[in-house]
Amino acid sequence: MKLLVATNNRGKLAEMRTLLNLPGLELVTPLEAGLPADFDVEETGTTFEENAILKAVQYAQATHLPALADDSGLEVEALDGQPGVYSKRFAGEDKTDQYRIDFLLAKLPADLPEGALTARFVAAVAFANPAGEVLKIEKGFCEGHITRHQRGTNGFGYDPIFVVNAVNRTMAELSAAEKDLYSHRGDGVTRIRPFIEQYLKSQI
Ligand code: ITT
Fold first, then answer.
1. Ligand 1: which atom is nearest the Cα of residue 69?
2. In this structure, which residue's CA is closest to atom 22 in ligand 1?
3. What is the pTM of this model?
4. Model confidence pLDDT, tens digit, residues 183-197
């Protein structure tokens, strides 16, 4: 069965490939499914779930393939949960990951010690059938805190400034396999994977 990975984000796509390495499942990118390179879904929701559903539905309808979408972001307690669903756009449109990191660090209250900069990564993953009906949605989390001294070069996005509490290393210092084990995306996809396996069996 073909499954469209409904994302334009290369980092997410690479992680999804490992997390969804299931016998009989062929992962297809939007380009491979014939969508134009500028195909995009307007993320008008105010929650991760709403945006994941918007993406899963519109990508499935556009390709007539089952689609899995991820909407994710970073919630920083000292910033009242920002940037949250606006993690990509928070610092303005079309910025680099480094620009977004610097922008976020500049917003942190100067008096808070690093250990108090509690944060978490959140991912909502939604599965839609080829008719664009959402059949399953799950959420995943990763608890940690922000460091003002970025470390590591793996991963993408805010990974270099997010310290994973469980291992006391930044997400960007983790190998790909370690990130899958601890990350919000790993958590969310692991939760939805049994459903995808079941759906796959029902299609044979
Ligand atoms: P798609 O909508 O095409 O999937 P996107 O990058 O626009 O790609 P989102 O709207 O879900 O995805 O925005 C998520 C942003 O949150 C992403 O661009 C990163 O800045 C950040 N983010 C999400 N997951 C992350 C991770 O695992 N590591 C670091 N940053 C992450």
1. 4
2. 73
3. 0.97
4. 999 999 999 999 999
Torsion (CA) 79, 80, 86, 92 in degrees, nearest 10: -30
Among the listed residues 38, 70, 71, 180, the single catalytic one is 71
Cβ(202)–Cβ(28) under 8 Å?
Answer: no
CATH number (1.20.1060.10, 3.90.1150.10, 3.40.1620.10, 3.90.950.10) of 2-202 reads: 3.90.950.10
pLDDT category, 204, cuts 50, 70, 90? low
Question: pLDDT band at 114, cuts 50/70/90?
Answer: confident
Other CB atoms within 10 A of residue 181 CB: 15
- Dihedral angle at the C-alpha atoms of 194, 197, 199, 204, nearest 10 degrees? -160
